[in-house]
Amino acid sequence: MQTTQPLAITTGEPAGIGPEITIAMAASSILPQRMVILADRTLLLERAQCVGVAREIIAAWPDYTPECTAPVSVLHTPLATPSVAGQLNPANAAYVLTLLDRAIDGSTRGEFSAIVTAPIHKGVINEGTNGGYFSGHTEYLAEKTHTPQVVMMLAGEYGDQQQMRVALATTHLPLKDVANELTTESLQTTLRILHDDLQHKFGLAAPRIIVAGLNPHAGESGHMGREEIDVIIPVLAQLRAEGMNLIGPLPADTLFNPPILAQGDAVLAMYHDQGLPVLKFATFGAGINITLGLPIIRTSVDHGTALNIAGTGQADIGSLIAATKLAAQLAATAH
Hints:
- By secondary structure, the protein is an alpha/beta fold.
- Helix content is 38%, strand content 17%.
- It folds into two domains: 182 residues, Isopropylmalate Dehydrogenase; 129 residues, Isopropylmalate Dehydrogenase (3-Layer(aba) Sandwich).
- The termini are close together.
- Its cofactor is Zn(2+); Mg(2+); Co(2+).
- Belongs to the PdxA family.
């Protein structure tokens, strides 16, 4: 099932692998939905050779207009300066944000059915935006859509085509700050967002959520920390009373076993490196990053810019394909 509106694909950091994996996917036969590539057209033409795509194929992709019905079109956005694969240039930081802004604006207005983002480089964006602080796609999307709180979730298939979904109660924080950020209010909101999007975007009528504890052994009755007793357990009790199916809190070192994972539709980890190393080990190369709680749909690859192989044609397109397919599915379900 498709929506009538195309997906917006932002190609990310121009010196990274984003442009080439986008080209490789768009030139393949794996197109779950009509797509608009946001990029500098010259950059696409330059990177075509490294992935074995004829320049003529890209030249034939029409310029995007709202009336365009081609399977692939290009919304040309000029670079500030030519980009060399593998070589970051702060002069193009604003270009990367312009791609995002245009995709966000179009999705908010219903022009695009969803956004799929290729990787960006946070450091060079901060360096090139006159002291502005950019902490990542997730936080930027929340700010631009005026969303008070969003939830980062990664997903992917593992084993015998089983689906693993791991959401985060806190995201890009130093480990020393996690316990202070894990409040009753933030955890309630996170679980409500996760539950709501599993229902309305993933189509799960009664989602089952497995919740990890924060401390080793889930605190072991307070002997290894009181966050479970003071925050996590009371929140789960309250939300269960509201009808949510919540399992836990469980010790994080044992919950990522297939028999336990089979009892839930998603896991809520308390911090970034509690849940994501397991998911990325199990699904790397085909994992997907989804931002929950937004008024729009956004998926992304689960890897970085890979500057060391940019321009070589060695980048794996599996994660981008998976992110694009899921964006199309979520858009169809949400509509």
